[in-house]
Write a structure and sequence with these properties.
single chain; alpha/beta; seven-stranded mixed sheet; six-stranded parallel sheet; 13 helices; 13 strands
């Protein structure tokens, strides 16, 4: 009897080993939907791909990267194609990409990155930090109270603040609403200037520059892809811009609180590897945040506007 029991145990052990080995695939296919090509999102995608290849082995993963060229509506056909191809995981780079992926599938794991606030992006009330279901990811949210403080620190004589953002990005609206609350509590007058897309950005930015002592641009992908337009209006007008992230600041701003988008994407890639191999359950995986925020300034624009960089800020390389 003992011998029979031992044989049964060995058989069960072998079966469990076979089951475990069959759970892992020889090659994983991952689809990446990136909203727009610009430095921050490009860095996040590169970090994601590097981490995933390092964790799984370059020969064991195929990564399909598709960029929506700044058109939110183009994200849907991209992720729908990924679903039709039955990819093993979707990485959604920016809020519209995440929203499109969430609408496309409830079964394929989805990891977002460069998404500011997941509760706002996905319409989750009282967001607790974990999305649940098939979605998790990383957030690029820098402390908004500190960004509001930057405006008064860099421009202490400012009385009016223009909040310039793209209305198609829900997280941009969240950021400007939050910053406006902080600024109005300081006694500043704030006006929101929303542009629908890059086509009307120039006109809206001009209106903001005409009526504002300083302009705040949040972490906004449409703005990041068109910083030349903002700079071409605000710098000649002598209106400084405080930016939500370093990519925007390098193009049109004087100062920002910067995170590393490469590191953010890299962290997302490590999460993806754990999800794909079964090491982690995406439904219980909390959203991750940048570990470090660095105050930085744009030396060229500061010099042009006659501003002396504040102590504690690093120059943007």
């Amino acid at each position: 009897m003992k011998r029979i029991i031992a044989i049964v145990c060995i058989v069960l052990l072998l079966l469990s080993m076979v089951a475990c080995s069959s759970a892992k695939k020889d090659k994983y296919v991952v689809g990446v939907c990136q909203l727009v090509p610009h430095d921050a999102l490009d860095a996040a995608t590169n970090g994601f791909c590097d981490a995933l290849k390092e964790a799984l082995g370059e020969e064991n993963v195929e990564i399909k990267v598709e960029v929506a060229a700044g058109d939110s509506n183009t994200c849907a056909p991209i992720v729908n194609a990924f679903v039709a191809d039955k990819v093993d995981l979707i990485m959604a780079n920016a809020t519209p990409a995440l929203q499109a992926a969430a609408a496309a599938t409830s079964e394929i794991p989805i990891l977002g990155t460069s998404v500011t606030e997941y509760g706002v992006a996905l319409g989750i009330e009282n967001f607790s930090g974990t999305v649940g279901g098939n979605i998790s990811g990383t957030s690029d949210l820098a402390p908004l109270d500190q960004q509001a403080d930057m405006i008064t620190e860099w421009c202490p004589d400012a009385k009016t603040v223009g909040l310039l953002y793209c209305s198609a990005e829900a997280n941009s609206k969240y950021q400007v609403d939050t910053v406006q609350d902080y600024l109005e509590a300081k006694g500043l007058s704030c006006t929101q200037y929303a542009f629908a897309d890059s086509n009307d950005l120039a006109a809206v930015a001009q209106a903001a520059a005409d009526a504002s002592d300083v302009i705040y641009v949040p972490t906004d992908n449409t703005a990041a892809a068109a910083t030349g337009v903002i700079d071409g209006i605000c710098r000649p007008a002598g209106v400084p811009v405080i930016a939500g992230e370093v990519g925007i600041c390098s193009g049109c701003g004087i100062a920002t609180l910067s995170i590393s988008y490469y590191d953010l994407g890299y962290a997302t890639g490590k999460m993806a590897a754990k999800v794909l191999t079964g090491e982690a359950d995406i439904s219980t995986m909390p959203v991750g945040y940048a570990e470090k925020v660095t105050p930085m300034y744009n030396a060229e624009i500061c010099a042009d506007l006659g501003l002396t960089p504040l102590d504690g800020y690093e120059p943007i390389a």
